[in-house]
Amino acid sequence: MSHQTVSRVLNDHPNVRVETRARVMAAIDELGYRRNLVARALVTSRSNTLGVVSFDTTLYGPASTIYGIEQAARTAGYFVSIVSLKSLDASSVRDAIEYLAEQGVDGVVVVAPQRSAARALETLPVGMPAVAVEGTHRSEVSAVCIDQIEGARLATRHLLDLGHSTVWHVSGPSDWLEAEGRLEGWRSALEEAGRPVPEPLAGDWSPRAGYAAGKRLASMDEVTAVFAANDQMALGVLRAFTEEGVKVPDEISIVGFDDIPESEFFSPPLTTVRQDFDAVGRHCIEVLLRQIQAQGPISTERLIVPPGFVIRASTAPAP
């Protein structure tokens, strides 16, 4: 049996007879053969490994994004090497990308929701295939992102359509591009409807921040609708309202963002914007592989994934 035949079986070549494939696989099992990926990389100049740079994978969004990327990469036949950073400052992101480049990855995905990380993409190694998640508006770097602005507009319009005169907003951290997009979408929806735009209450994505904002909102008689920039802060708002005797949705409606798995089990179940992280991961890998396989200059792409909207029991017509 020639080494060419064995190679064809290992690489799933279609022109191999069923009987031959079975004999090769039986021999592989008997001998305990394992592929030498280092040797293969030396021959092909490809490691079949993709690098991912991210941080704080305890947050639902980044963790779900990384999971989607990893699953899509494996489906495409690639391994993933992840560098998780304590902070996404430009220097740390550059160092992480350089580290992955030295490991011989075929391309990198940078989950870059903050401005500092987006700036680091300006210094990518020459010729390195790369895709950013959320983090860049530069035409030189490909990006895949969920339409944060439209998601916030969906949330705000929903509350206005229920008859609420305006919508209050608990925003995310100011240095997050996602928080900026959600703030912009909320404000534009109110302005287009000719409604007052209340001063947003700043948060940090945590339930504690939502709780503090909820305590303030519960004391304001004019508040009947709240849009929280993520579900965790919405949970904190709900807890504060409950403690203050404010009934949701009878007295105040609330909408979140993300559709975390727990949101349907909040009390009441949370109306929220859904992000399709599987689609983000799939598109990231598709874009990256087109760059890796390109013959000639790398072209850039920007793909926008539309948000979904899930109506549950936390919203109702204005009182």
Question: What is the strand and helix layout of this fold?
Answer:
Blueprint: H1 3-10, H2 18-31, H3 37-44, E1 49-55, H4 60-75, E2 79-85, H5 90-102, E3 107-111, H6 115-120, E4 130-133, E5 142-146, H7 148-161, E6 168-171, H8 177-192, E7 201-202, H9 207-218, E8 225-228, H10 231-243, E9 253-258, E10 271-274, H11 277-292, E11 302-305, E12 308-310
Parallel strand pairs: 1-2, 1-3, 3-4, 4-5, 5-11, 6-7, 6-8, 8-9, 9-10
Antiparallel strand pairs: 10-12
Keywords: DNA-binding, Transcription, Transcription regulation
Protein name: DNA-binding LacI/PurR family transcriptional regulator
Domain HTH lacI-type: 1-44
SSE string, helices as H and strands as E: HHHEHEHEHEEHEHEHEHEEHEE
What is the global morphology?
A: elongated
Number of strands: 12
Q: What is the CATH third-level topology name of the largest domain?
A: Rossmann fold
Distance between the termini: 79 Å
Query: Could you list the spans in which at least 5 consecutive residues all have pLDDT below 50?
Result: 36-45
What percentage of residues falls in helices of 4 or more residues?
40-55%
> Using only CA atoms, what is the Rg?
24 Å
Q: Give the CATH level 1 class of the largest domain.
A: Alpha Beta
What features would you describe in this structure?
This protein is α/β, with parallel strands linked by helices and 319 residues long. It has three domains: 3-34, Orthogonal Bundle (434 Repressor (Amino-terminal Domain)), CATH 1.10.260; 43-147 and 280-307, Rossmann fold, CATH 3.40.50; 148-275, Response regulator (Rossmann fold, 3-Layer(aba) Sandwich). Helix content is 43%, strand content 17%. It contains eleven helices and twelve strands. The chain has a six-stranded parallel beta sheet with strand order 2-1-3-4-5-11, with helices on both faces. Strands 7-6-8-9-10-12 form a six-stranded mixed beta sheet, sandwiched between helices. Strand 8, helix 10 (231-243) and strand 9 form a beta-alpha-beta unit. The longest helix has 16 residues, at 60-75. The radius of gyration is 24 Å and the shape is elongated. The termini are far apart. The model is unreliable at 36-45 (pLDDT under 50). Residues 1-44 form the HTH lacI-type domain. Keywords: DNA-binding, Transcription, Transcription regulation. One of its GO terms (molecular function) is transcription cis-regulatory region binding.
